Amino acid sequence: MSTTYYFAIVGATDSPLYEAEFGVNRSENKHLHQFVVHAALDLVEDALFLTNACYLKTVDKYNDWNVSAYVTPSNVRLMLLHEAKSEDAIRSFFTDCHELYMKTLMNPFYEPNSTILSQAFDTKINTLAKKYLL
Quick one: average pLDDT of 95-122? Predict the structure, then answer.
């Protein structure tokens, strides 16, 4: 089953830091994907009060899509819009993306809470998506 995934990193100030689409029909509904993920941010905030875990699993559903979230200790949210439900693969994807984001933060030329424009970061995220999601 081929599906579409939309991945976004949202900063602590609710500004998008990075976004990517994986799978088929990549830019068919990009604005709708952005809207669904943005709408789920309030539900992520609510879920944070119920657990201390970074991985929040599925926080919202819209039609056939699920929104899964992972929140870093610095309140940066990693959000994934997906149709397929594979909790272990999504958790592994988020964990590796968080590690990659931490490496980006350690770069002295990167300013925290600014848009990530690195082609190397994009390539590594796409590789992780192929490994865990596609």
Answer: 95
Angle at 77 between CA 96 and CA 123, to 5 degrees: 40
- Which residues in 35-133 belong to E strands, given as ranges? 55-62, 65-71, 77-82
pTM as predicted: 0.92
Which residue, among 32, 111, 112, 96, has the nearest Cα to 64 in the 3D structure?
32
Q: Strand ranges (DSSP E) for 1-134?
A: 4-10, 16-23, 55-62, 65-71, 77-82
Per the structure block, which two tokens stand in for 60? 């919202």
pLDDT for the residue numbered 96: 98
Evaluated on CA atoms 86, 45, 70, 114, the torsion sign reads positive
